[in-house]
What does this fold into?
Amino acid sequence: MRPVSRALAAIAATAIVVGACSGATSSPSASAEASPSGGAPSPSAPAEPVTLTYFTFSAAPDHLADLDAIVQAFEQKYPNISIEVQTAAYTDYFTKLQTQVASGSAPDTFELNYENSVAYASSGALLDLTPLAAADTDFDASVYYPKAYEVFQADGRQFGVPEQFSDVLLFYNKDLFDAADVDYPDASWTWEDERAAAEQLTDAANGVWGHYQPIQFFEFYKVLAQNGGSFFSADGTKSTFNDAKGVEAANWLIGKLDKTMPSDAFGPDQDSALFKSGKLAMWHTGIWLFPALADVPFAWDVSVEPGNVRKAHHFFANAVVASATTAHPEEAWAWLRFLTSSEEAVTVRVNASWELAAVADQSLFEPYLSQTPPDNREAVFDALADIVTPPVIEQQSQMQDIVSQALEKARLGQLSVEEALNEAAAQVDALLQ
Amino acid sequence: MVELARANPLIGTGTRKVRWGRLVSRTVIYAALTAGGLAMIFPFLWMLSTSFQSAGALLVPPPQLIPSPIELGNYAEIASAFPLWRFLANSLGVAAVATTLQVATSAMAGYAFARLRFRGRDALFLLYIATLMVPLQVTILPLFVEMKYLGLVDSYGALVLPSIASAFGTFLLRQAFLGLPRELEEAAFMDGAGHLTVFRRIVLPLAMPAIATLAVFSFVASWNSFLWPLIIVNSPDLMTLPVGLSNLQGRYATAWNLLMAGSTVAVVPILIVYVIGQKYVIRGVTLSGLKG
It folds into this structure.
């Protein structure tokens, strides 16, 4: 009796250990079934009910009802397809998506921002939409804003369709401009005009600052472009952001600090709080803040951003894509197309101020353009004349961290701007190897 | 006594000196502890205060610790616009089941490692303890794949299963069992008891403090767990509180007052568990040298 129960207990203990350890051993079978479908649409009976999953970061928490409206319109048009929506916050979204994709259970369709879309496409995780678009006779790619459609191509393959875009403008507090008797910003402004205005507008005694622009990767590649510089050499093998133009661009960001721009070490959302409380005259920020500023107790407007050598504006675009592993490529294509370009979907977005669909037909934006403030909503589209997309490499997040950290060191005065950029360039070059 | 004091006046002043010394050192200690305590509680107070502020009031610098006016609507809004009770119930259910099972498996394994003799026991134990050094982030992908093949993705089972065996729990209880007097068990064996009886009737009752400690730790860990539930669960119906709350964060702007109201609700159960199990938590840290 005793030896038996002893053996049993030992087996039980072993089983527990094995159970816990098996979590640590990697399973090679995971990648085996990664890409069964090579893009050729499988023949499927249209009447058969199909459920597609759609994973999104842009809906929760404010636009769940809007997405629901789009889904319902889609399901009415395609009664055999139902869409199952999954949401996660932007900060957690990619953690979850990565696990799902790597384990071969990616959602059928999902959302990607531009930088990540490049990485996912090159890893082979995304379905090539080119044959599906070609087979779809009443589809015309010109329904999209052309540049927005093109940025989601690689090696002649369309791996995503543009869902929405936003850009960054110069927001300004009209009341502060009036009080200081300074002319409002316009399209002719350059950095120098902004600097001069900011100096006049800064009123240290009352805690009013001239302008605010975040000091990080995304602002840096844009001001670099405004200064006529480029992030990488033409063949993409070497960093060039540490040349004279890059140094000047970084100095433009950092030089304003504590003179006309508040130190940004004061926590997240504080720039927003400062502007809303009427203590910030000019603010470089995204058009997604229009709704949040609707009720502020002062007059404000927007303008295209001042350039230096040339103008350059951010173009933040999200694509919707289909997983290479989806069992229903044709249905996925129908959903992606509907979600991004159907009049129903575009209208829901416009009415909800839920970013902007990347469609070319400007008449659909009439309800958006007629809303005020800001009066100069046209600037949102004017800015598209000279857009830049972020430099993208495989180790995107490392590169962004390196550049942001270099700017941080320069900002804190630990290194000179030149030293910081040279150090960052050497580190980024090492990533390119 | 009086005479003695008169004869030797130094005695009186001596004690006074000692008293003064003690008073000063006490004051310093209490001042330091108070400062530390305030620093610890400040984030919680801020959370509480934010949860009672209106969205507009939050943006007026400088930040106000005492909200005025006090906005009670945040709690009503979060409970109506958001399946808060469902998330709360999920969290409670998962934490209760995971804790119960983890305590059970840890106690059995701990007993085996403490009292049974079998070939390779210590090596096995060492191997098991070594898994404490492998962080969840490393094992999460294989774990996900495992769940996929078990057909458990997006289910309660997947939420509970990975935490039912715990190296930490096994270690904690093994140490506790080793500290129990062997004589009691030997006496029971003499009376004809088997391992099961000894385990149930002698070891478990004697090790109750350690078991309570593990229960508190395991409950707190399950309650706070975020990464695994985030990844394994897709349906809102199955989301636990931390995952549900994270969905309140928008990409560009977050309604902090609502998020903090939700967080306050999330903190209350854990606070209750802590208040009840406080002494076990402290004992657990001193016993194992580990913090959960």
The longest helix of chain A spans residues 2-21.
